[in-house]
Amino acid sequence: MISVEGLKVEFNATPLFEDVTYVINKKDRIALVGKNGAGKSTMLKILAGLQQPTSGVVALPKDTTIGYLPQVMVLADKNTVMQEAEKAFEHIFDMQKELERMNQELAERTDYESEDYHKLIDRFTHENERFLMMGGTNFHAEIERTLVGLGFKREDFDRPTSEFSGGWRMRIELAKLLLRQPDVLLLDEPTNHLDIESIQWLETFLSTRANAVVLVSHDRAFINNVTTRTIEISCGHIYDYKVSYDQYVILRKERREQQLRAYENQQKQIQDTEDFIERFRYKATKAVQVQSRIKQLEKIERIEVDEEDNSALRLKFPPASRSGSYPVICEDVQKKYGNHVVFHDVNLTINRGDKVAFVGKNGEGKSTLVKCIMNEIDFDGKLLIGHNVQIGYFAQNQAQMLEGELTVFDTIDRVAVGDIRNKIRDILGAFMFGGEASDKKVKVLSGGERSRLAMIKLLLQPVNLLILDEPTNHLDMRSKDVLKEAIREFEGTVILVSHDRDFLDGLATKVYEFGSGLVKEHLGGIYEFLQRKKLEDLNELQKSIPSGGSATSTIADSQGVVSDNKLSYEAQKELNKKIKKMEKQVADCEKAIEELESAIAIVETKMGTVEGASDMSLYEQHQKLKMQLDRTVEEWEQSSIELDEIKTNG
């Protein structure tokens, strides 16, 4: 689909990468990886046609469509969410207008026997078939599915986009991109503004419904679940692995070990040659051999070893005094804005040494509760901060509180104490402020760079309660590893608001789930929570007491009255049967959808040939298959909704 040949990009005469050649095929799922500054975002811009390389060619077939999601974009605020999402189907609206115009012309003309009239009928028939084939009658259902999948509620559809934060407006742009179904999707950090559920939905979409995908992401779990091929940019070259990210890491280690052995052998050979030249340089009898060795040395193609920072940088929080046993206690805490209740009846106790995760869809109150704990906003109920609690707080707005006139180095130098002062350059390098970047003034840094700097500053201050709100959004994988290890060894208490499953894995030992105005506690790590979440609604049945009954009437009496526990068991058996039946129905629909999509793809391939383009029976077959697919998708949606309702309400 896209052929990249001999690509070279230079900045100030310094090559970013050169002689890069590879092909992106249909249905490829490619992770573009490399250290920060290696050129990943630049590569995406070149593939998108937004930046020209210094030399080389990016070739693609004439009608290939490309969708590009940058990390940052300028967003319009003049429409509702639905109106903005509908822009993905502007080509359908144009076709609809043209069909209406032709239909009107057919109705008004009376030259029924003329050649022009028959040509108009043929053109109308052909365009109408194309219109139906492109989903002209059911695109609203597709828009709703996509917006809901990305976390929007149906009541959000008619709200102006200006009412939403930048992160939510980025989701609208992502929705438009997915709805257009381009031949190649280029995604630069698409998960930065998504919650866990939306990330899982996007994973499924990209794995099953997208065409070719090239993505840059620092979310390990996401790229492992989506991609099957890994292209690494290193030392100005690329290495193409036909494997997922985890397997790439193993193969890369093996390749680097081979490189090191070859490099060491070559260095020995060079050293031996140089020693020979030096030893016999002034001996006339050896002049021919010396010249031969000099030429041999000049011809050697020097082996480069991939850049890899193996320094075992470990950050340890400075020691802080011990806090009380219960750093945070919430009793019946409620927060509302006017009539909108964000959450209510929040009762939780965080013990000293706990490492807890706040998870849930965006807008359910995770950051709001953090602000309540920080006493930044008013709330109802009782919230106690324990004895001698020293809080270290990281939120996105912390970055705005840095002093603009200081350099990056000076900002950290002012808070570093003891031995850590000798490691400031190493720490800055680990968080992508290596080399000259450490001498930049804070006021010229991007939002992401400021966030990273605020994170480093926090890591060097003595605290016993850490509250981190989306700390990994602007960190690469190495920086995340450094931060994760520091938190793991931190002896105090930690509250993490994050959507990064890989980062939370092994850190959080308790999960608080925010949703529908409630905060539920789940013991265990993030993956245990995600697995349990699929089953937990069944447990609600056991907690319920039948209407008319009371807690004391649930014990069987001496006459053998059946207890409510027994009834609950029977009811659960019945419910399980119903769920299994609905799950089978959903699975059957999914299988049918897969088969129909395969059949449609085969017909479309035939239609793309010279013979198939004029075969009207193929168009009829295609239209029938599309209609059948639409019906099956509707049936699948209905079955899925019913299944969710049964699981939720029993």
UniProtKB/TrEMBL annotation:
The keyword Metal-binding does not apply. It comes from the Bacteria. SMART domains: AAA (SM00382). InterPro entries: AAA+_ATPase, ABC_tran_Xtn, ABC_transporter-like_ATP-bd, ABC_transporter-like_CS, ABCF_ATPase, P-loop_NTPase. Keywords: ATP-binding, Coiled coil, Nucleotide-binding, Repeat. Pfam families: ABC_tran (PF00005), ABC_tran_Xtn (PF12848). Residues 2-260, 328-541 form the ABC transporter domain. GO terms for molecular function: ATP binding; ATP hydrolysis activity. Residues 85-115, 565-639 form a coiled coil. Gene3D superfamilies: P-loop containing nucleotide triphosphate hydrolases. The keyword Ligase does not apply. CDD domains: ABCF_EF-3. NCBIfam families: ribo_prot_ABC_F. Belongs to the ABC transporter superfamily. ABCF family. YbiT subfamily. This is Probable ATP-binding protein YbiT. It comes from Bacteroides graminisolvens DSM 19988 = JCM 15093.
